[in-house]
Design a protein that fits this description.
About 45% of the residues lie in helices and about 10% in strands. By secondary structure, it is an alpha/beta fold.
Amino acid sequence: MALLVKQAWRLLHNPEAKWVQILKGIYFPFSNPMSVPKCKQGSWAWSSLQEGLSFLSQDIRWNIGNGNGVMIWEDKWIPTLPSFKISSPRPMGSNFYLVKQLINESSWNITLLQTLFSEEEVKAICQIPLSFHHCADSLVWHPSKNGDYIVKLGYHRLMQNKRQNQAASSSRQEEGNETIWSNIWSLKTLPKIRNFIWKACHNVVPSNENLARRRHSNTAGCLRCGDNTESIEHIIFFCPFSQAIWRASTFHYSPALMGFGSFASWWQEVGSLFKDDDSFSSQSLLAWTVWGIWKARNAWIFERSCDSPVHVWNAIFKDFTEYQQLQNVSLDSLSCPSHTSSWAPPPPNFLKINCDASFSNSRKYAGIAAVVRNSNGIVVDGINAQVHASSAHVAECLALRLGSTLIEQHDWQQVIVESDCKHAIDMINGRTSDTWEAKVIVSDIRSLIANEPNVTFSFVSRLNNQVADWVARTTLRGVCPPQWTQLIPYDLYHLM
């Protein structure tokens, strides 16, 4: 199915292909393939493609460029809303139909938005970046970063849908399992112990019972006590040697065989009773004890080790406390030596533009800045602004576009543009595919510098971008002096 959906995606994105033209002439000559109802007379190939289109329709939406081809209330085009669509009713007698009617040049008409939509919808719309050059709208598949359908992600999405369609009891069981796995992988212990607990919950450890079932052992019994079945539960809880270890431990635990379920149910019920704190983790000690009992069992079978239960427990507790002490070692002794800013000036006759953004996730707002300096380190120009942004990545791209506008305005020929966002720099330089959320911004940047062959974009560490970072942070807080390029504040001058 995931591969079939790929063909449906090609149908949407290759309208000039011969096979698409043939299907269009037969099944949707005057409409969109997404809106064609299913029919019994359709061929097997077309019926299969409709199944793929049906799956795509769940997560496909428009990425806004100029808004010319996107309907305001009918189409999906707002990425941060649950359904990607406007839920506010259309006002009676409204003459607004297309998204382009909500745009003033290259910005949203906030006053109009506030009259048509709810506050939540206005905030979500304002987070959508608009193109300076009015590029065309494009269909994107929301789950992927670059907007293209990916078979691997499609498969996982299909499996997720399948799990969601299960019965309510199955859903509750799945939720319980998710709690167990989250509990295991968050344990403050060694990775091998987490892996063992996970395997024990799945009953895939090589106990004699499991080995015999797979015909890798001649006996399914316990070689230590002679019990007929050596299951993981017997090894950890009910072998007399294991029970002696539990009684010697700080837990003083003595499980009853009657009514005992599986190891997984025990871990969920008993393990959740222990709460972790900063200095001592009872739940982690529980995992160390289980691991120690398993090690003692293997040592007896393969090495004929005859350590007493008390000795085994003392070894478990010693290993556990040593691990805890190592985890509490101050990170200061492991940290790298501090570095000072080492901003490198551009070559003679070149300018360097440092761009940065400071993003507030709660407000979905950002301060962006671009600082221009010459080969002597003197501030030649600069620009800053407060903008709506859906993520820090979008904010960084907006800062780079802001710096690029200076290049076009002043017609600078030889410029080095720097940013501490490597992903944004790689997108502009074509080293990685554009993300759907920043696609129109990157397209604008490329258009702004299309006729400037000596303009380059480079990644720089945050330590070497502190000046732009200061301007961006103060801009977000609303305390950046308006004339900061002429009358440089002391804090900013100190960073230079």
